Amino acid sequence: MVVAGGARQFGTPGPRLATPLQALVRRAGTGAPQSGITVSWTVESGSGSLVNTPVGTSDAQGLVSAILLLGSVPGTVRVRVTIRDQPEAEISFEAFIVDRPELTSLSPLTVRGGDTVRVLGAGFSPPAIQNVVLFSGIRGKVLSAAGFELKVEV
User: Fold this and answer.
1) Angle at 12 between CA 16 and CA 141, to 5 degrees
2) Which of 8, 94, 119, 134 is 20 to 30 Å from 22 by CA-CA measure?
């Protein structure tokens, strides 16, 4: 079983994650997708719950999905997926609940690809990897982060 989609998403407290968590069940040996396999989804830690039943069955493409509702406490939510008849076959997903950031200033105001931008505000996550900054829908590279400042490469 492998992660097929939805891993490492970010969201604010309360709503569902934007993309369902998806696992791909494959046949041992050949790697071919395997349908009809029952898996169990478990929220192991963090503030979150599954919207649908915690048990699912893989479809004809070997895919099985779950929808994660984010709780009210910022932090990491870990979800474990196991094959019902083979509990040693497992994968994990992480999602991150973050406070809604507030932007107070951006400098410089005009930028091009490769430039570095200083973003000031509140509610940023100190680990740089946990912040997402988009420029016309394209993700920038967060070079450094603090709760009040980000430095981002366009």
Assistant:
1) 110
2) 134
Q: How many CB atoms lie within 10 A of CB 59?
A: 14
Report, in this order, helix, strand and coil percent for the chain, each rounded to 5.
Answer: 0, 55, 45
**Measuring CA to CA, which residue among 46, 28, 55 is closest to residue 94?**
46
Q: Which two tokens stand for residue 59?
A: 């479809």
**pTM of the predicted model as reported, rounded to 2 decimal places:** 0.76
Distance CA 151, CA 154 (A): 10
Dist. CA 33–CA 28, nearest whole Å: 10
